[in-house]
Amino acid sequence: MEDFEEEQQRRKKPRRGANGFDAAAAAERRKRIDAERRQLPAWAARDQLLSLLQQHRTLVLVGETGSGKTTQIPQFLVNARFGFGSGTGQTSVKPRAANGVDQDPGDAGPSTSGRGQANGAWGGGGGNCIAVTQPRRVAAMTVARRVAEEMGTPLGQKVGYAIRFEDATSPATRIKYMTDGLLLREALVDPALSRYRVVIIDEAHERTVSTDVLLGLLKGVQALRGDDFRLVVMPSGALRGDDFRLVVMSATLDAGRFVDFFPGAVAGLIRGRQYPVQVMYTARPEDNYLDAAVCATLQVHTEEPPGDVLVFLTGQDEIDSAERLIKDKLASLPRSQPATVGEGAEGAGEGADGADPSAPAPAPGGPDSLLVLPIYAALPPEQQMRVFEPAPPGVRKAILATNIAETSITIPGVRYVIDTGYVKSRDYNAKLGLESLAVVPVSQAQARQRSGRAGREGPGKALRLFTEADFGQLEQTTPPEITRCNLASVVLQLKAMGIDDVLGFEFMDPPPRAAILRSLELLFALGALDAAGKLTEQVGQRLSRLPVDPMYGRVLLAASDMGCALEAVAVVAMVATENVFHTPRAKEKEWRSARLKFVAREGDHLTLLNVFRGFSELPKESHKARTQWCSDNFVNIRALRKAEDIHTQLLRFLGPPSPPGLGLPLRSCGDDPTPLRRALAAGLFPHAARLQPDGSYRVLATGRQVFLHPSSVLLDRKPPALVFSELMHTTKTYARDATAVEPRWLPELAPTFFAAKAPGQA
Ligand code: CDP
Ligand code: MG
């Protein structure tokens, strides 16, 4: 209850002083948000949900996107002292207030449970935190920020988030938004997930690998934590036994399957509001969906009544191009279109905070009244948050989004959806052992979900940039990722949790046997498993602790043996960082020449190392020097800072001899690149390839033909043999991040792997 009291205090007397104005504005904003919250469909269902969850240990909750599942449910649980029954022993099923709006127990009457009791009210065994998993980092961060704001607490205190390499939580954290992958990592050290009273698996329909593994594990956690799951509230208000609860939520869930999977589960439905959406198709297939999306955006802008546009594209590059194209086209629109007297012009007159009230409203459909906003995972958080802000009066937002806007985040104001019909998706060929990130058509379910985003606040329109016949050809639903990905990491983690019989693990949808076998083979080749399939202490145990792909984990272990751990850590940090280089098309000559000074003839990994070294040598405290250096060298300062961060954390994982540290020697090989190349070969050997007479490469492990990625520094002097980080499949299969290796190192460093494969014969 303390939150709510604090909040009320704050509302009553906004702080004055130097920033008195800001405080008043913030209070105003909070008030608006608070009113909005209470209108969300989740609020109407609150009491029922809480009571369902009192009686069942698993709740499968389905509700339209935007109904308040992600932001509200965890707050309901915290405010209802879920852990059930507050210190006063009251039940959490409360009568409806006279005004028909459900009251937050936090503001219902006098507070009898004071600060001191707050923690105790959670009672029973287990921790007192609620974990809410998200498949995407962006969602975890933006939602946590929003909920912290709603609760009026600084982010990282009562509400926090944790994603790989970033932890914004504290001991005070009660609601922890996190990626599903991170919760999986936590399960490694704490298989009972004892820190959590409630685990909420959100966006379960996405069926990411981590979500699927978690679902299997959670079934075990439930068995582990308490067999008496009908709650008994003791007179003291405490609970008997452990009262672990699981909530599985999503917008488009086949609830039945989840209910069947978890014994004793119950399904709940949040009835949302959904307005009709008029779906339109193109008459003919589009040659270029990017151009088509740009044209469609402008068409909506110039021809349709007000309302924001949400455009689904597949990735950052595409979004950047689309943004540029739209801006170019806008620039060529007639500048002073006569302002139609209508919503746009009127709206601009009032309420434009800080805007010059005498300034003319931007003309609807004109170049100044379209605000293009990108949203994708790698975008800096401040920029991500901009999509949630309402556009200035008379201005239309065009949000260019990846799949992230399909279900995980809800952007207010959207009335038009433009769906390219494509998505970037992970794919795995178990037979070839190849994983790729490819642009593929969406499923029918995805297309429907995307269109639905136009009808949240009123009737909307969805433009599908494909034909109706093509829609008919789409898959009904997307198969779970676990059935089409590289399972090495998953299998390693299961093994580390003591689940030896991976083939017998209770997956909701078991991955193909071949894929599991393949990852077992790979882990065996890396030395992580012994011939009996048991995790090895030297390699397997250690690899499972490192938050990187097992192949890169192996690189780090090898590097510490070979005296180049410091370099390898920097390389892995750089590889783990996206979008290091800034490559504006207009300045191609400039960035190419700037890049030259980093180029290492040994390959891309060492080039990345040079960039990292260059950056680290700058004085840390001089923001100006760092910014200048990055701008001169066409590298992305945010990416480099991120890499620095990952670097620090990886050192912590490897270095100090107490957990999480592995206590490995951290030495440097100085300017001799050979040890590092050998270490890379020792981990990436499953991705070793030999040059073919036609200039392509052949992957030794699989015989597959691949091409060196156009961005590789080795393109001009292709070495006879190389190892690479990953394959990317677009029009051809490209090998990315390559380093030249000596062919003879391979059988030496990975004898079992190459004994049967006869590498020389490739
Ligand atoms: O999870 P679900 O899709 O059911 O909804 P939610 O994410 O809890 O969002 C509920 C409402 O909060 C939406 O209507 C959003 O407009 C709003 N919201 C927001 O304005 N800013 C955020 N960062 C997150 C949510
Ligand atoms: Mg949600």
Q: What does this protein look like?
A:
With 762 residues, this protein is an alpha/beta fold. It folds into 4 domains: 1-38, no CATH class; 42-100 and 117-270, Rossmann fold, CATH 3.40.50.300; 278-481, 3-Layer(aba) Sandwich (Rossmann fold), CATH 3.40.50.300; 545-754, no CATH class. An 8-stranded mixed sheet has the order 4-3-5-2-6-7-1-8, sandwiched between helices. The protein has a 6-stranded parallel sheet with strand order 9-16-13-10-12-11, with helices on both faces. A hairpin with a 5-residue loop joins strand 17 and strand 18. The radius of gyration is 27 Å and the shape is globular. Residues 1-19, 83-125, 228-241, 337-356 and 758-762 have low confidence and may be disordered. Cytidine-5'-diphosphate is lined by residues 40, 63, 65-72, 142-143, 146, 388, 410, 412. Magnesium ion binds at residues 69-70, 202.
Distance between the termini: 69 Å
Question: Low-confidence runs (pLDDT<50, min 5 residues)?
Answer: 1-19, 83-125, 228-241, 337-356, 758-762
| Tally of individual helices | 27
Largest sheet: 8 strands, mixed
**Distinct small molecules bound, one entry per kind:** cytidine-5'-diphosphate, magnesium ion
Summarize the amount of helix as a percent range: 25-40%
Total beta-strand segments: 21
Q: Briefly note the CATH topology name of the largest domain.
A: Rossmann fold
